[in-house]
Amino acid sequence: MDDGRPSDVRLRKPERSQVTVGLSCPDELVPPEHPVRVVWEVVCRLDGGGALAAFYGPIRARGGLCGRDATDPRLLVALWLWGCTDGVGSARELARLCLESAPYRWLCGGVTVNRRLLADFRVGFGDALDGLFTRVLASLVGQGLVTVHRISQDGTRVRACAGSGSFRRKATLERLLGEAREHVAGLRSLLDDPARSAGLSAKKRAAMARAARERKERVGAALARLPALEAKQAALATKVSEKGRKAGKLKGPRASTTDAGARVMKMPDGGFRPAVNVQLAADTASRAVVGVAVVNEGVDTGQLRPMRAQVEARTGLAVREHLADGGFLTLADVDEAAQEGVALYVPPKPPRNKEPRGSEYEPRPTDGEAQKAWRARVGGDEGKSVYKERAATSETVNADLKTCRGLVQLTVRGLAKAKCVALWCALAYNLLHFAPALLA
Length: 440
Description:
By secondary structure, this protein is of the alpha/beta class. The chain has three domains: 26-56 and 71-123, no CATH class; 145-162 and 263-413, Nucleotidyltransferase, domain 5, CATH 3.30.420; 165-236. 50% of the residues lie in helices and 10% in strands. The chain contains 16 helices and eight strands. It has helices at residues 35-48, 53-56, 73-85, 91-100, 102-108, 115-123, 126-142, 170-192, 202-236, 242-246, 304-315, 331-339, 354-357, 369-379, 381-403, 415-439, and strands at residues 150-159, 167-168, 255-256, 263-266, 272-283, 289-295, 321-323, 343-345. Strands 1, 4, 5, 6, 7 and 8 form a six-stranded mixed β-sheet that branches.
């Protein structure tokens, strides 16, 4: 067949069946200036300072005992930090990259890892991870890079690992819990009967038992969440008009059978989806993330004082100025901050009718001295200039963690595990911005 190709043309063609023999070194997978080497150096420096000591405690592979060697915690920490730096938010994806991507293969150095090992390590060391975050901040504070004299706080909603259809009310949850218990009992009877379970492997038996047990636990956790939700709904019921109550708008609260810690929240695009509220505090001078918390409240009120306490405990320094948007504000926060010697820069809510009440910065007859001072502070030119730092700090941090660090949608369940994910992202952010200081 004439394909228009000259008969005497010479081409280099792929020969995929050709066997080749060569010498290679894992250290040559990435060039000397590649940033993944910086991540490994920082992790080794932190380990040398004792920051990773808590990760070694649960390891059972010890000298004189039989069994397989444990994977080095330095490697697993470095993999997750580099993964978050690279925007990877899934253990399955991280395991794939460890086989296919040169920087991840360089980190592994021939050590094999699987998604289960990576997933368990990511969320299985909450206290150790929290301590590592604090040790990094302590290093930056010691070098004078972080002062926390002025911090900026903001909350960002992150999509939870739960579907909208997983939320059920009390009657349905009680029925589902009864069905789950019956399923667990029936499955136990099946597995204990050699004749009926003869065709099931040990792995299949364990998987079936684990799935049934976890289903019962999740439904039970959702049912246990209802009393707190009912109390909160009762407290808010006074804000609903009698007409709304008669119309049947007040229904019982719902909890998710997939993730009891998730709540349906209003997202930045205006839609309502299951999510958690990730609270982040940043030092306005250095842009370092200095506080991380995860709550399942759809609003930010009540989060100012706990965040200040966390930041001061981590850094050993006192917060003197606190910036946040109007969604955080309650007058009680103003009084508490004044008692602690903290100047709040939180804009007051504008009145619905300005004619009789005037500007939101004008003092009200019921205001105390702290509230009057707060209105005057945030309404002045200097206060407005200071408040501009909130968006320049918190919004950029939120955008960085969501756009570049993989804090988009959670693949884990529960507030404790969600906090671990947020801490990994915050650590990667701080490491990326302060690596030279951490290596000094």
